[in-house]
Design goal:
Length: 264
C-alpha cells in the first residue's frame, strides 16, 4: 500500500493495498479507498466517503466534506463514487444533508478543475463537467451529459441523457435529454454531434429533430405540443423525451424567443 510519508490517514479509514496515497493527502474518518485509486497531492477525503476502483483524484480536490446546507445537523451521511472517474484540481464533491442520505456518482465521469457537486446529487456515467461547472443540491444528471465551463444548475433540476449545456449557461428548469441548452434554460438545438458519437442512426436523429421542432420551435401550450408529437409515429428516444417532460415538477427548458430550436 504506497502511502506517502507526509500523508495523514485516519486509522478508521480502509485503504485498498493497490491504492496510491500521494504527498500531504488527508484521509479522515471511515472513508474507503478502492483498488487502483490514486489520490494526488493535497487531496482531502473525509467523512463517510467511498471511492471505487481506478479513480484518479488530482491535487487539491476535496471529497466528502459536510454539505453546504444550513439544514445539515451533523449526522452521518454519505458520498459514494464509482469506478474510473477523473477528478481534477480543486473539484469538490459533498456528501448528503439528511442522516443516511447520500450523494451518488457513477462510473467513467470527468470533473475538471473547480467543478462543484452539491449535496444529494445523483450523477450517472460518462458525465463531463468542465472547469467551474456548479451543481446545486439534489440535482440529477443522466448519462453522457456535457456541462460546459462555469455553468450553474439550480437545486433539484434534472438534466436528461446526452444533453449539452453551453458555457456560462444557467438552469433552474429541467433540461430535456438530447438537447443543447444555453443562456437561461433555453433549448437551442438537438445535440446532433453528441448523438452521432453515441451511435444514434440518422433516422433516430431526424425523429428527435422533428419532435424538438414541434415542442420548442414557437410559444405554444406544451401539452398540445406533446399531443401533436404523439399523433405521429414515435421512436423510443422520442418517447423518452416525452416521458421526461411529463415527469418534470420544475418545468422544462423553453424554446428560443428568437424562433425556437435551431436546426444545427
Amino acid at each position: 500500500m504506497p502511502i506517502h510519508p507526509t500523508a495523514v490517514v485516519d486509522p478508521l479509514a480502509t485503504i485498498d493495498p493497490s491504492a496510491v496515497i500521494g504527498p500531504f493527502v488527508v484521509v479522515e474518518g471511515p472513508a474507503r479507498i478502492g483498488p487502483g485509486t490514486r489520490l494526488g497531492p493535497h487531496v482531502t477525503v473525509t467523512g463517510w466517503t467511498t471511492l471505487g476502483a481506478d479513480n484518479i483524484v488530482h491535487a487539491g480536490a476535496r471529497l466528502g466534506d459536510a454539505p453546504q446546507d444550513l439544514a445539515y445537523g451533523g449526522g452521518e451521511s454519505f458520498l459514494r463514487v464509482g469506478d474510473r472517474n477523473v477528478i481534477r484540481e480543486g473539484a469538490q464533491l459533498h456528501r448528503g444533508t439528511g442522516p443516511g442520505s447520500e450523494t451518488l456518482v457513477g462510473d467513467d465521469n470527468f470533473f475538471m478543475t473547480n467543478a462543484h457537486i452539491g449535496h444529494n446529487c445523483r450523477l450517472g456515467n460518462h458525465v463531463i463537467m468542465a472547469t467551474g461547472a456548479t451543481l446545486g443540491g439534489h440535482v440529477r444528471v443522466e448519462d453522457h451529459v456535457f456541462i460546459s465551463g462555469n455553468c450553474v444548475v439550480h437545486q433539484f433540476v434534472r438534466i436528461g441523457r446526452l444533453a449539452l449545456l453551453r458555457g456560462l449557461s444557467r438552469a433552474s428548469r429541467d433540461v430535456p435529454p438530447f438537447c443543447i441548452m444555453d443562456g437561461t434554460h433555453t433549448v437551442r438545438a438537438v445535440n446532433r454531434v453528441g448523438l452521432r458519437r453515441a451511435g444514434f442512426s440518422s433516422a433516430q436523429v431526424r425523429a428527435l429533430h422533428a419532435a424538438f421542432r414541434t415542442l420548442f420551435r414557437r410559444a405554444r401550450n406544451l401539452q398540445h405540443a406533446i399531443a401533436a408529437v404523439e399523433a405521429t409515429p414515435c421512436t423510443d428516444e422520442v418517447r423518452e423525451l416525452l416521458d421526461f417532460i411529463r415527469t418534470s415538477t420544475r418545468g422544462v427548458c423553453r424554446g428560443s424567443r428568437q424562433g425556437g430550436a435551431d436546426g444545427d
